[in-house]
Protein backbone atom coordinates (compact mmCIF):
# COMPACT_ATOMS: atom_id res chain seq x y z
CA UNK A 1 0.00 0.00 0.00
CA UNK A 2 1.40 3.40 -1.01
CA UNK A 3 1.01 6.50 1.11
CA UNK A 4 0.03 9.55 -0.97
CA UNK A 5 1.77 12.21 1.12
CA UNK A 6 5.07 10.52 1.99
CA UNK A 7 7.21 8.28 -0.28
CA UNK A 8 6.53 5.13 1.76
CA UNK A 9 5.39 1.62 0.91
CA UNK A 10 4.24 -0.93 3.48
CA UNK A 11 5.67 -4.42 2.97
CA UNK A 12 3.71 -6.06 5.78
CA UNK A 13 5.20 -8.61 8.14
CA UNK A 14 8.50 -10.35 7.31
CA UNK A 15 10.69 -12.75 9.23
CA UNK A 16 14.32 -11.68 8.96
CA UNK A 17 17.05 -14.22 9.64
CA UNK A 18 19.86 -13.64 12.14
CA UNK A 19 22.24 -10.90 11.07
CA UNK A 20 25.93 -10.67 11.97
CA UNK A 21 26.93 -7.02 11.77
CA UNK A 22 30.27 -5.18 11.82
CA UNK A 23 30.66 -1.41 11.99
CA UNK A 24 30.56 1.52 14.37
CA UNK A 25 28.50 2.10 17.49
CA UNK A 26 27.27 5.67 18.03
CA UNK A 27 26.20 6.70 21.54
CA UNK A 28 24.85 10.20 22.25
CA UNK A 29 23.09 11.98 25.12
CA UNK A 30 20.28 13.32 22.93
CA UNK A 31 18.54 12.80 19.57
CA UNK A 32 20.22 15.87 18.03
CA UNK A 33 23.60 14.26 18.63
CA UNK A 34 22.52 11.15 16.73
CA UNK A 35 21.38 13.28 13.79
CA UNK A 36 24.89 14.68 13.57
CA UNK A 37 27.01 11.61 14.40
CA UNK A 38 25.20 8.82 12.49
CA UNK A 39 25.83 10.34 9.02
CA UNK A 40 29.52 10.86 9.91
CA UNK A 41 29.84 7.25 11.14
CA UNK A 42 28.09 6.04 7.96
CA UNK A 43 30.50 7.91 5.72
CA UNK A 44 33.51 6.63 7.68
CA UNK A 45 32.17 3.06 7.48
CA UNK A 46 31.69 3.40 3.71
CA UNK A 47 35.32 4.59 3.38
CA UNK A 48 36.59 1.68 5.49
CA UNK A 49 34.35 -1.16 4.27
CA UNK A 50 37.30 -2.68 2.40
CA UNK A 51 38.78 -3.58 5.81
CA UNK A 52 35.77 -5.75 6.73
CA UNK A 53 36.06 -9.44 5.86
CA UNK A 54 33.19 -11.66 4.66
CA UNK A 55 30.80 -8.86 3.58
CA UNK A 56 27.36 -10.14 2.54
CA UNK A 57 26.16 -7.14 0.49
CA UNK A 58 28.64 -4.27 0.53
CA UNK A 59 26.03 -1.83 -0.82
CA UNK A 60 23.54 -2.41 2.03
CA UNK A 61 24.31 -0.33 5.08
CA UNK A 62 22.37 -1.50 8.15
CA UNK A 63 21.46 0.56 11.20
CA UNK A 64 20.39 -1.23 14.40
CA UNK A 65 19.01 0.10 17.69
CA UNK A 66 16.58 -0.69 20.49
CA UNK A 67 13.67 1.72 20.86
CA UNK A 68 13.15 0.91 24.56
CA UNK A 69 15.42 1.73 27.45
CA UNK A 70 18.26 -0.74 27.19
CA UNK A 71 21.37 -1.83 29.03
CA UNK A 72 24.55 0.19 28.67
CA UNK A 73 25.90 -2.50 26.31
CA UNK A 74 22.83 -2.19 24.05
CA UNK A 75 22.45 1.60 24.14
CA UNK A 76 23.14 3.57 20.98
CA UNK A 77 22.87 3.12 17.24
CA UNK A 78 24.97 0.64 15.28
CA UNK A 79 26.00 1.63 11.73
CA UNK A 80 27.10 -1.62 10.09
CA UNK A 81 27.50 -3.96 7.17
CA UNK A 82 26.34 -7.57 7.34
CA UNK A 83 29.01 -10.27 7.32
CA UNK A 84 28.87 -14.06 6.91
CA UNK A 85 31.41 -14.52 9.70
CA UNK A 86 33.39 -12.45 12.19
CA UNK A 87 37.12 -12.41 11.46
CA UNK A 88 39.82 -9.85 12.29
CA UNK A 89 37.52 -7.02 13.38
CA UNK A 90 38.97 -3.74 11.99
CA UNK A 91 40.38 -1.33 14.55
CA UNK A 92 37.71 0.82 16.19
CA UNK A 93 34.82 -1.31 14.89
CA UNK A 94 32.36 -3.45 16.84
CA UNK A 95 30.34 -6.57 16.12
CA UNK A 96 26.68 -7.27 16.85
CA UNK A 97 24.44 -10.30 16.35
CA UNK A 98 20.75 -9.53 15.75
CA UNK A 99 18.69 -12.71 16.27
CA UNK A 100 16.04 -13.95 13.84
CA UNK A 101 12.93 -11.84 14.38
CA UNK A 102 9.50 -10.99 12.95
CA UNK A 103 9.24 -7.39 11.72
CA UNK A 104 6.71 -4.96 10.32
CA UNK A 105 8.49 -3.48 7.28
CA UNK A 106 8.01 -0.12 5.58
CA UNK A 107 10.12 1.16 2.68
CA UNK A 108 10.95 4.88 2.67
CA UNK A 109 12.55 6.91 -0.11
CA UNK A 110 13.75 10.30 1.05
CA UNK A 111 16.33 12.07 3.18
CA UNK A 112 17.58 10.24 6.27
CA UNK A 113 16.72 13.26 8.44
CA UNK A 114 13.01 12.49 7.76
CA UNK A 115 13.16 8.84 8.92
CA UNK A 116 12.37 9.67 12.55
CA UNK A 117 8.98 11.09 11.47
CA UNK A 118 8.20 8.14 9.18
CA UNK A 119 8.18 5.74 12.13
CA UNK A 120 4.75 7.12 13.20
CA UNK A 121 3.30 5.71 9.93
CA UNK A 122 4.84 2.32 10.67
CA UNK A 123 3.65 2.31 14.29
CA UNK A 124 0.09 3.22 13.19
CA UNK A 125 0.13 0.40 10.62
CA UNK A 126 1.26 -2.07 13.33
CA UNK A 127 -1.60 -1.00 15.63
CA UNK A 128 -4.22 -1.00 12.86
CA UNK A 129 -3.24 -4.53 11.79
CA UNK A 130 -3.41 -6.09 15.25
CA UNK A 131 0.31 -6.46 15.97
CA UNK A 132 2.26 -5.25 18.97
CA UNK A 133 5.68 -3.65 18.90
CA UNK A 134 8.64 -5.20 20.72
CA UNK A 135 10.70 -2.08 21.57
CA UNK A 136 13.12 -4.17 23.64
CA UNK A 137 14.26 -6.04 20.50
CA UNK A 138 16.53 -4.76 17.70
CA UNK A 139 14.99 -2.38 15.16
CA UNK A 140 16.72 -2.49 11.77
CA UNK A 141 17.13 0.17 9.09
CA UNK A 142 18.34 -1.57 5.94
CA UNK A 143 19.58 0.92 3.35
CA UNK A 144 19.23 -0.33 -0.22
CA UNK A 145 21.02 2.82 -1.33
CA UNK A 146 22.64 5.43 0.86
CA UNK A 147 23.86 8.71 -0.51
CA UNK A 148 23.52 11.23 2.27
CA UNK A 149 21.00 13.05 0.02
CA UNK A 150 18.17 10.61 -0.73
CA UNK A 151 17.99 7.18 0.78
CA UNK A 152 16.03 4.03 -0.01
CA UNK A 153 15.58 2.28 3.33
CA UNK A 154 13.49 -0.55 4.77
CA UNK A 155 12.44 0.34 8.33
CA UNK A 156 12.01 -2.96 10.21
CA UNK A 157 10.22 -2.66 13.57
CA UNK A 158 10.10 -5.86 15.68
CA UNK A 159 6.57 -7.17 16.36
CA UNK A 160 4.62 -10.12 17.73
From TrEMBL:
This is GyrI-like domain-containing protein. It comes from the Bacteria. InterPro entries: AraC_E-bd (IPR010499), GyrI-like (IPR029442), Reg_factor_effector_dom_sf (IPR011256). Gene3D superfamilies: Regulatory factor, effector binding domain. It holds the Pfam family GyrI-like. SUPFAM superfamilies: Probable bacterial effector-binding domain. Residues 9-160 form the AraC effector-binding domain.
